[in-house]
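Reopening: DUF3221 domain-containing protein still failing for me.
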Amino acid sequence: MKFILATWMIIMVVISGCSSLKSHNIIEVQGITGYIISFDNKDNNVLVAEAHAKDKMVQSHLINIQNYTLITDADNNKIHFSDLQIGQKVKTAYYIDKDNQFAVGTKLKSQLLRGSKIAVQPEDFPDILPIDETKAIATALQSEKSVQLFVRNVDFNKEDKTWRILVDDIITMENKRLVKIDSKNGQYID
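Support: Ran it again with your exact input. Result attached.
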């Protein structure tokens, strides 16, 4: 009986020590709002590039999805890594010990991280069908295979029913171009 009681107490201590990230010693540090521009399914990585970058610098976050990564949909329901899609607009965040919040500075050190978060954002143009905002962005991001693109701007033209997505090369930032996508069939428009 003592063994069972001791085992139960150890389990309770472990569970309470691994409880939610809302503990008093953990704080959330906001990351960026951007679009998912690539996946690495082998290593469970998601690359998010800042939305609407205006200058010669774009922030991007590479998030390695682990058991301590919280992924939510636009309604704040938990979802899985497999539910994420290229082109989705997301917000990133990181969880760190409150005691280390000033040690973070501009670069998060991996030893300070206690978790990460990816929150899918509602689409800016949710009622456009059959090609929605996420699908149009994914098509635009895949329009040039030789370079990694990111999204500078997204707009929907109601007159000709086309998505207009301004993309750029994430490395050189010298390849701005407007990609037009037909909202009815998802095809490029020249």
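Residues 22-120 form one domain. If you still see a failure, please send the error message rather than a screenshot.
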